[in-house]
Structures are given as structure tokens and as C-alpha cells.
Amino acid sequence: MIKKFFSLIIFLALVGGVGYLTMGPKRLMGQIETAILADETEKLQHYIDFPILRQNIKEQFSDKFSNETAEEDENPISGIIGGLATKVADKLVDAFVTPKGVADIMKRHAPKPEDGEELALFAGARYSYDSLNQCSVYVPSNDSKERQIILERRGIDWVVINLMVDAEDIANPN
Q1: pLDDT tens-digit map of 19-37
Q2: Of 47, 36, 65, nearest to 170 (Cα)?
Q3: What is the residue extent of each domain of the chain?
Q4: With left for phi above 0 and alpha for psi between -120 and 50, is residue 52 left, alpha or beta?
């Protein structure tokens, strides 16, 4: 009898642990939404790895600029302009990828609420596990696109490590 009881306890603990880990990304997005809507953007530092996020967004812009300059490779000035554009983008990313800046980007792209409804930043989001330690969240946007947010598991918690953005998101933070 005692052996069955302990087996049941172990089974329930395993199921609960797997459930906790599986729901981690959804729980994280809920915490982010709560912090943004309550204007408690300083809490975002617990949920978003800002140094890695900045680096990943810089790489997005660097790839975009290098692809654009590769298309204009015949023009020798395009390489110089591409290098300057990358440096300017790096400075913009450093300045605007802050808790408040990320909150503003997420609010700006949130689907517009119907009359009488509250703003829901991640309503209709799709969650896709890329690996055991990485999850992509696809969030519907008010411009009929989906925005991708990439999460990484750190122990039993999850953090945002990448946010797919457009140049306008950084260049026009408001």
C-alpha cells in the first residue's frame, strides 16, 4: 500500500513538473503583458535578457544592411554607407532596446481591442517549441503580420532573447 502511495506521489510530481515546464512560455508572456499594461516596465528586466536581445537585434539589422549592400555591390560607396548604417543602427538599438522601448514596441503592434475590451498584447499567440530549450511565440499584430518572439529556457524559467523587429520599430520608437 505504501509503495503504491509513493509511486502515485512520484507520478504526480513528474506530471506537475512537466506541466510547469511546458506552460513556462505562456506564463512568461502573461507576466510580460501584466508588467507592460501596469506600466511596471522595470519588471521586464526579469523576463527579458536585454544584452542578448540587443545583440540579436543588431545582428538582424547587420544582416539586412549586408544583404542590401550586396545587391548594390557594384557601387564602391555602398560598402561605406552599409558600414555607417550598421553603426547608426547599433547606436539606435542601444538607445531604444530598453524596458520602456520594448514595451512601446509591443503595445504599438498589439491588435486593436474591440469596443469595451481591454488591450491584450498577446491575444491569439501561437507557441512553437523549436527545441527543448527554445520556444517561438508568434503574436498577431495590428498590421496583419505575425511578430516572432524567441524565448530561451534557463533552468525552470524562460526569458526573451530575441524579438523580430522592423527598422521602423527602432527608428520610430513612439
Answers
A1: 766 789 999 999 999 999 9
A2: 65
A3: 2-50+100-171
A4: alpha
Is the pTM higher than 0.70? The answer reads: yes
Q: Which residue has the cell 548594390?
A: 72
Q: Which neighbouring-strand residues pair with 163?
A: 149
Pairing mode of beta strands 157-163, 126-131: unpaired
Q: Which CATH architecture has domain 2-50+100-171?
A: Roll (3.10)
Place of cell 499594461: 37
- Give the closest residue to 61 by CA, choosing from 135, 162, 155, 134: 162
How many C-beta atoms surround the C-beta of residue 129 within 10 A?
13
Q: Write the CB contacts of 162 (distance below 8 Å, at least 6 apart in sequence).
A: 52, 53, 56, 57, 148, 149, 150
Residue 13 Cα distances to 28, 127, 134, 154, 170, angstroms? 22, 24, 23, 20, 44
